[in-house]
From TrEMBL:
This is NAD-dependent epimerase/dehydratase domain-containing protein. It comes from Brachypodium distachyon (Purple false brome). It comes from the Eukaryota. The keyword Coiled coil does not apply. One of its GO terms (molecular function) is oxidoreductase activity, acting on the CH-OH group of donors, NAD or NADP as acceptor. The lineage of its organism: Eukaryota, Viridiplantae, Streptophyta, Embryophyta, Tracheophyta. SUPFAM superfamilies: NAD(P)-binding Rossmann-fold domains. Residues 13-250 form the NAD-dependent epimerase/dehydratase domain. Keywords: Oxidoreductase. Gene3D superfamilies: NAD(P)-binding Rossmann-like Domain (3.40.50.720). Pfam families: Epimerase.
Length: 329
């Protein structure tokens, strides 16, 4: 066993929502470090959710899958019992929402509390929760090129509700509920707050953030949206979760943004890497470009993490979309 693989030898940890984009990488890296992984999925009989996990190095001996559902009280008990740390990544993320309460808000908030209650029963010492920059950056404060967003920022639920930003609201309320629960019940919690997560896909299905890149390159659109997002590589996000458990001094929230870039800049990078891809060259509206802003990297660097550059992340995403058959060139 390599020294990295020795770190987790003999230790069991739990990952919720293990078939997801970030979670699949988290399981892969945990197995590579020698951990035994107790992973939950909604349906253990669905090959789309499980085959790619069973195929990971070390999975045969050290990956155990459990069926659990966010809204089913106690369904995480079995997976969490006997774990030293729980990584809670399960939360729905998609856009065309018909019933925000049922589709996003309840699973995010109630699901998080459900998992934390199971952690309490099992006397788990440290829980690492996958939150989002959605829970950080949406408030009344301006976001312009000279502004630096950091871990002290919190999104305002009233504002999210007013603007019908249901996903943002779900992550804001879920993180808020989690902090309150961890304080009331005295266990250590760390949140990882990534922006748009891109990079290679392990799972066979298309996830929401990789689809953002796909829509820019598959010829389906003649214009690009007037948006500026933070971007981060999925491998960095997965590693940050692990370091948040392994580094004893890790605490509070960790914003994860390698760079905030407007869609026009993303397209410029894509065009330089792949001159033949049919990328749109016109913005969807005539207004001024939504400004970019900065996000502090001080705290995430304190875990010893050097972030993968945006250009590399874009290239890895496109190569992965090709390899998985989502993009025919």
């Amino acid at each position: 066993m390599s020294s990295a693989a020795a770190i987790g030898a003999g230790k069991a940890v739990c990952v919720t929502g293990a078939s997801g984009y970030i979670a699949s990488w988290l399981v892969k890296l945990l197995l590579a470090r020698g951990y035994t992984v107790r992973a939950t999925v909604r349906d253990t009989d669905d090959p789309k959710k499980t085959l790619h996990l069973h195929a990971l190095d070390g999975a045969k001996d050290r990956l155990h899958l459990f069926k659990a559902s966010l809204l089913e009280e106690g369904s995480f008990d079995a997976a969490i019992a006997g774990s030293e740390c729980v990584f809670h990544t399960a939360s729905p993320f998609y856009h065309n929402v018909k019933d925000p309460k049922a589709e996003l808000l309840d699973p995010a908030v109630e699901g998080t509390l459900n998992v934390l209650r199971s952690c309490k029963k099992a006397s788990i010492k440290r829980v690492v929760v996958t939150s989002s920059m959605a829970a950080v950056a949406y408030n009344e404060k301006p976001r312009t090129p000279d502004v630096v967003v950091d871990e002290t920022w919190f999104s305002h639920p009233e504002l999210c509700e007013k603007n019908q930003q249901w996903y943002v609201l779900s992550k804001t309320l879920a993180e808020d509920a989690a902090w309150k629960f961890s304080k009331d019940n005295g266990f250590e919690m760390v949140t990882i707050n990534p922006a748009m997560v891109i990079g290679p896909l392990l799972q066979p299905t298309l996830n929401t953030s990789a689809e953002v890149i796909l829509k820019l390159i598959n010829g389906s659109s003649s214009t690009y949206p007037n948006f500026s997002f933070g971007w981060i590589n999925v491998k960095d996000v997965a590693l940050a979760h692990i370091l948040a458990y392994e580094v004893p001094s890790a605490n509070g929230r960790y914003c994860m943004v390698e760079r905030v870039a407007h869609h026009s800049e993303i397209l410029k990078i894509i065009h330089e890497l792949y001159p033949n891809l049919p990328v749109p060259d016109k913005c969807a509206d005539d207004g001024p470009f939504v400004p970019t802003y900065q996000v502090s990297k001080d705290k995430i660097r304190s875990l010893g993490l050097q972030l993968i550059p945006l250009e590399t992340s874009i290239k890895e995403t496109i190569e992965s979309l090709k390899e998985k058959g989502f993009l025919s060139l």
